[in-house]
Specification:
about 375 residues, alpha/beta, Rossmann fold, 2 domains, seven-stranded parallel beta sheet, globular
């Protein structure tokens, strides 16, 4: 029986990484009979937001790494060293007890510690960002220095799993063995699909710099001038939400903002297209999710997720990166041509199937068997 040990910070938020990880672990236990363990550093008393099979072993080490940010300068470095020392000892004890066949590290910040205590066990870094995220994210100087350092020691992992072929190519500058496996996606199972009758476009994601909500706002300004009877509904929260909503109110835009919902598939079915304007997108779960509901999707050609999911002109539209005018024009084209929306929506339903668990999870099973056998041969 294959024994897998995942190492991550927490399963505490309604995020894409957390949902994908829970779905994969559940599938491995239920369909393959794997013995799955997950170690978190700072789960604490936070409930896990997604269903987790009772056969999965969860252990929280109680390492509150975020406490280091209460300090500055040398005090922060010293706090980080102390917390890492505690993490080192506690994780080593878990590995000695579990004796996994493969260790999968989800957080790049944890890789070096896992490497030091993993013994003769293959370690995989499962990347849910992109290799060059540092080019886009606004971070403190300290965090940028730390992440640059961590990226350069990524070769400590036996291999990296990236979500797209393009990002995998970037990672090959830092590691010899890089694989590509897309996210497994929960698809529409209702048997119902968008009827393309609603004058609503939908967008789903955090109000953050990465999602570039300001480009989305500017696109909709142009769309509203030509189609004032249409609305944009956005589901999400984040640090830019209040500022965004103030602009929407002051400028009288046909944009409505809603909190994230566990019934997002119902919202997809009530819409006629999905819009995404991210600066970068490691994958973009909402794209195949909404496609499975019969929605054409529109996104910028950013690094790297959208272009790996959308077939331009077939099941959606890819726009030259940050070309606001072209983006608005293509949205208007979809608004004005219901038959085009319907055709793309039907293609999107068929296209989304390639991200189902039945298609993606056998790739993980094959991957784990391969990594284990390679390690045995090399050992």
């Amino acid at each position: 029986m294959m024994r897998i040990l995942y190492v991550t910070d927490a399963l505490a938020v309604w995020g894409g990484v957390e949902r994908v990880l829970c779905d994969k672990m559940n599938y491995m236990v239920d369909h393959y009979g794997f013995d799955v363990h997950i170690v978190t550093t700072n789960q604490g008393n936070h409930p896990i937001p997604f269903p987790l099979d009772k056969r999965i072993h969860l252990c929280d080490l109680g390492i509150m790494f975020h406490h280091q940010y209460k300090y500055h300068g040398l005090k922060r470095i010293w706090a980080y060293i102390n917390l890492t020392y505690i993490f080192n000892n506690r994780l080593k004890s878990i590995i000695d007890d579990v004796k996994p066949d493969v260790i999968v590290c989800i957080c790049v910040e944890l890789i070096y510690t896992v490497f030091k205590v993993k013994q003769n066990i293959p370690m995989v870094y499962e990347c849910h960002s992109i290799c060059n995220a540092l080019h886009y994210d606004e971070m403190s100087v300290w965090k940028k220095i730390k992440l640059k350092y961590l990226r350069h020691i990524i070769h400590k992992a036996d291999c990296i799993v990236a979500l797209t072929a393009e990002d995998a190519q970037d990672w090959r500058s830092y590691a010899k063995r890089v694989y590509t496996i897309p996210n497994v996606v929960q698809l529409n199972q209702s048997g119902r699909f968008s009827q393309q009758d609603s004058k609503v476009a939908i967008s789903v994601g955090r109000f953050s710099n990465q999602k570039d909500v300001w480009s989305l706002l500017e696109v909709w300004r142009l769309v509203q001038l030509r189609h004032p009877d249409w609305e944009l509904h956005i589901y999400g929260e984040g640090e830019l939400k209040d500022e965004f909503e103030n602009i929407v109110r002051n400028d009288n835009l046909n944009i409505k903002v809603f909190l994230p919902t566990s019934h997002i598939f119902d919202r997809y079915l009530e819409s006629s297209m999905l819009l995404m304007t991210s600066l970068y997108e490691p994958f973009g779960l909402v794209l195949p999710e909404s496609m499975s509901c019969g929605l054409p999707v529109v996104a910028f050609k950013c690094p790297y997720g959208p272009a790996s999911i959308i077939s331009d002109g077939v099941d959606g539209i890819i726009i030259e990166d940050r070309n606001i005018i072209d983006y608005a024009d293509r949205v208007c084209q979809l608004i004005e041509d219901k038959s085009l929306r319907e055709q793309m929506g039907q293609n999107a339903i068929r296209s989304s199937v390639r991200f189902s668990d039945a298609i993606v999870m056998p790739k993980w099973k094959e991957f784990f068997n391969k990594i284990k056998s390679i390690h045995v041969e090399c050992g």
